[in-house]
TrEMBL record:
Protein name: Uncharacterized protein
Superkingdom assignment: Eukaryota
Cellular component GO terms, alphabetical: endoplasmic reticulum membrane
Membrane topology qualifier: Multi-pass membrane protein
Organism from which the protein derives: Symbiodinium pilosum (Dinoflagellate)
Length: 222
């Protein structure tokens, strides 16, 4: 929705690095269903590959839109030089390190557990570049992305509520096995995700209210 629900083809104010972070997170999560059955839904949808199909379709759509967005911005010279690939690389490295030390061992599948935890940390950090753009005022927001802002916050709250309940119900069981670090990590990732989403929604709303009829990105000013 972040890529599609925009009022202009250049989608001013949207972070390409945030979009790529979501792509990396989703691709990594899909990969956990390729080997083993630990992360495949246990209901009938797992038999017809519905979960994998929907995830893959979403990734393909986002990748297409990000590439299209990048091409349009380059041709129109919009928002160039504001973001750096080093942001995405740093997020990926940090997520990989944290995943290595905090992954679960509940599925007895090292790479699947590592990949899933990496995707969780990556998704938690994904809105970092977007928040950075708004905090620095480097670019104006696209008002039509309001649906994304609201739904992202809602999904983060639901994700946090789910893992909060799982932690409450199963913490003692995992604590006895010495695997309680996973729950500490997942709740930390949830907190970071909600905090970034809430900050994004706040800054988005604040800038939308005071935005003039037209405003150029910092890199577009003459």
């Amino acid at each position: 929705m972040l890529a599609l629900d925009t009022s202009s083809s250049a989608a001013e104010g949207l972070s390409e690095k945030t979009l790529w972070a979501f792509v990396v997170a989703h691709v990594t999560r899909i990969s956990t269903t390729v080997w083993g059955e630990g992360y495949i839904p246990e209901d009938n949808t797992g038999d017809v590959f519905l979960y994998q199909g929907l995830e893959l379709l979403g990734v393909l759509v986002v990748v297409f839109q990000v590439l299209r967005l990048s091409a349009v911005r380059s041709s129109q010279d919009v928002g160039q030089g504001i973001e750096r690939w080093s942001q995405l690389i740093a997020m990926s490295v940090l997520a990989a390190v944290l995943a290595y030390f905090t992954k679960s061992t509940g599925h007895d599948d090292y790479w699947a557990d590592l990949s899933w935890m990496f995707s969780t940390w990556m998704e938690a950090f994904a809105l970092g570049p977007q928040v950075y753009l708004l905090v620095t005022g480097a670019c104006a927001v696209d008002e039509s992305a309001a649906h994304f802002a609201g739904l992202t916050l809602a999904s983060s709250v639901v994700f946090t509520a789910f893992w909060g309940r799982v932690t409450r119900d199963r913490y003692r069981e995992f604590d006895q096995d010495g695997d309680h670090t996973f729950f500490h990590a997942i709740l930390t990732a949830c907190f970071i995700r909600v905090a970034l989403c809430a900050t994004y929604v706040y800054l988005f709303t604040k800038q939308t209210k005071k935005r003039p009829d037209y405003e150029l990105c910092a890199a577009d000013e003459l």
